[in-house]
Design a protein that fits this description.
Elements: H1 2-14, H2 18-33, H3 38-45, H4 49-58, H5 78-83, H6 89-99, H7 105-116, H8 131-144, E1 149-150, E2 160-161, E3 167-174, E4 181-185, E5 194-200, E6 208-215, E7 219-221, E8 226-228, E9 234-238, H9 241-246, H10 256-264
Parallel strand pairs: 3-5
Antiparallel strand pairs: 1-2, 2-3, 4-9, 5-6, 7-8
Helix pairs in contact: 3-4, 6-7, 8-10
Length: about 270
Amino acid sequence: MFKIKRLNNSKKMQKLSEQEIKEKEDLIKLYVNEKKSIAEIKNIYGCSWYIVKSKLKKYDISIRLKGSFLVDDDGELLYSKFNKCEITKMEYYNKWAKSKGFKNIKDYNNEYNHKSGRCLPMSENKECAQYLGVIIAERILPLIFNNVEMKPYGYPGYDAICSRNLKIQVKSSCLHIKDNSCFFSIKKNKVADYFFMVAFDNRENLNVIHIWLIKSDENIKTQSFDGKLNERSGFTISNSEKILKKYVKYEIVDKLEEIQKICNEFKGAI
């Protein structure tokens, strides 16, 4: 079996032109022996990262993970720990990103995407689905809670914490014309203490039609579910008079005018 494999590889080598053989030898020297990175090699050849990577694949040269020569705090190579399953791939990449001055791999990818023009930061991207809830919520929450501390976007479990040490998850939704309802994604979040839900008429007018503040472990009974809010994947509130009466005790109405003034600033911009 081994001899057959070697024979096949030999035939494969024979198919390479002299130029390709030289190219492969150079890549082995730079990437394998001298342990240069793909970024360094692309600069040497004056080509793109993609071309270098495709050449490595073409010549069956194993591609290393980023930071494969990075040493952990205990002196052992991170790559060695990953190969021995002592750390996960996510842990590996987070440590690599931290070595580059980033919080984690997500922070690194966001920075790369923004600089390369693949996508805009959420605060500038008005087409982003999260823009409506997160950016406007930063302005609204201080009207409801004292000393609000906003967490970075994507923070696990909640978006803000107030002076009473309550964790608040912000949710926003536009009215679905088809069934006259608003849907809020809950994802069985049991980290947050409260869900702050803002319902708009649509993204263009940004008229606030309802605001609810519901404790996460509040028992919410509907036709299809009877249990705590934080045990749900999602939560739908119909914009009908009968259904709205059930949630009137959670509704915030005294700040509605002030909140609408803030939302008016975003009209036409989203």
